[in-house]
């Protein structure tokens, strides 16, 4: 089945060429896993979407944003019925809509909503078991404290970083900030294990506050596993024993190799006997009890 796309409640691939999402990246988006007809981590995705809409001023309060989400839910349900499969990738994009020329936003935005349901990506299912190969990217995150953590439409830092390699055996790239600290993968969040606990980078200047990363931190807290949010120098990351990545589609990926550091190599046989294995199992349990598309609210 090809992708199903709804724009403002109509099944179409077309968006007005004057939309501010195209002109300025003026909007936010969420990429969400659907498995067995269940929308994975829906509440967390919804909360992040609303936070982005409020931060950008597309909506002025939570009540108006929540009302808009109800319209999005209707679009999702209609699109999913047409798609006809129980496993897919759902992408929600919201822009400020039309606004004419110039950066000044309209005083009363008419947001555009885009719902896309696409086939599940192939060739990834084994990577949670086998681990992944990653590289250090040359392109760094730009700093902007006002937008740090948001999943807004301006993703050029990640586009630049991802285009640094074409080797299909490299699964992800590690991005640093301007001070040389590890911030994230191109499409994922980063964790390292330390003294039985977890360390994940501070995202107060750049990066995206991942929904799966938030879930991992919640699971850790509930199981008395310490989680610290702090700077991770590249040297610390290279020398750590159990680094891993997370995102909403891939879950948890242990890192095996790190280019260009040939001495960084972690065999995968230990995964199920470590904290990573525990977190993978706990996440799987959480994801098995998610709302069906028809039950979204």
Tell me which CATH architecture of the largest domain applies here.
Alpha-Beta Barrel
User: What does the largest sheet look like?
Assistant: 10 strands, mixed
**Termini gap:** 26 Å
User: What's the overall average pLDDT, rounded?
Assistant: 93
SSE string, helices as H and strands as E: EEHEEHHEEHEHEEEEHEEHEEEH
Instruction: Choose one word for the global shape.
Output: globular
Q: Helix proportion of residues, in percent?
A: 25-40%
Q: How many domains is the backbone divided into?
A: 2
CATH fold call of the largest domain: D-amino Acid Aminotransferase, Chain A, domain 2
Q: Report low-confidence residues grouped into runs of 5 or more.
A: 268-273
CATH homology superfamily name of the largest domain = D-amino Acid Aminotransferase, subunit A, domain 2
| Structural class by SSE content | alpha+beta
CATH class term of the largest domain:
Alpha Beta
Fraction of residues in β-strands: 25-35%
Note down, in words, how this protein is organized.
- By secondary structure, the protein is an alpha+beta fold.
- It has 2 domains: 4-120, D-amino Acid Aminotransferase, Chain A, domain 1 (2-Layer Sandwich), CATH 3.30.470.10; 127-287, D-amino Acid Aminotransferase, subunit A, domain 2 (D-amino Acid Aminotransferase, Chain A, domain 2).
- It contains 8 helices and 16 strands.
- The protein has helices spanning 20-24, 42-55, 62-83, 127-130, 156-162, 211-222, 234-239, 275-287; strands spanning 4-7, 10-11, 27-35, 38-39, 88-95, 112-118, 132-136, 172-176, 181-185, 189-194, 197-200, 227-229, 232-233, 244-247, 251-259, 261-265.
- The strands form 2 sheets. Strands 7, 8, 9, 10, 11, 12, 13, 14, 15 and 16 form a 10-stranded mixed beta sheet that branches. The protein has a 6-stranded antiparallel beta sheet with strand order 2-1-6-5-3-4.
- A hairpin with a 4-residue loop joins strand 8 and strand 9 (181-185).
- Helix 2 crosses helix 3 (62-83).
- The longest helix has 22 residues, at 62-83.
- It is globular, with a radius of gyration of 19 Å.
- The two termini are 26 Å apart.
């Amino acid at each position: 089945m090809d992708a199903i796309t709804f724009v403002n409640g109509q099944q179409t691939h077309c968006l007005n060429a004057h939309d501010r999402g195209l002109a300025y990246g003026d909007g936010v988006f969420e990429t969400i896993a659907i498995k067995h007809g269940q929308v994975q981590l829906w509440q967390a995705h919804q909360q992040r979407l609303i936070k982005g809409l409020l931060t950008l001023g597309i909506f002025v309060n939570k009540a108006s944003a929540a009302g808009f989400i109800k319209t999005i839910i209707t679009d999702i349900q209609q699109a999913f019925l047409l798609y006809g499969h129980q496993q897919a990738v759902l992408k929600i994009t919201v822009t400020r809509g039309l606004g004419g020329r110039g950066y000044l936003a309209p005083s009363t935005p008419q947001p555009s909503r885009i719902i896309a349901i696409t086939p599940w990506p192939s060739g990834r299912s084994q990577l949670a078991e086998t681990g992944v190969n990653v590289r250090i990217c040359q392109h760094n995150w730009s700093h902007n404290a006002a937008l740090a953590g948001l999943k807004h439409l301006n993703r050029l830092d990640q586009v630049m970083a991802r285009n640094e390699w074409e080797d299909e055996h490299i699964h992800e790239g590690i991005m640093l900030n301007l001070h040389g600290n590890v911030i994230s993968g191109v499409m994922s969040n980063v964790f390292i294990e330390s003294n039985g606990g977890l360390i994940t980078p501070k995202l107060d200047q750049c990066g995206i506050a991942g929904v799966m990363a938030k879930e991992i931190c919640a699971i850790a807290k509930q199981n008395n596993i310490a989680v610290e949010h702090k700077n991770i120098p590249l040297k610390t990351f290279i020398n750590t024993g159990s680094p891993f990545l997370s995102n909403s589609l891939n879950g948890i990926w242990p890192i095996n190799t790190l280019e260009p550091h040939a001495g960084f190599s972690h065999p995968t046989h230990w995964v199920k006997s470590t904290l990573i294995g525990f977190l993978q199992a706990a996440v799987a349990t959480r994801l098995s009890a998610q709302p069906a598309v028809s039950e979204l609210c």
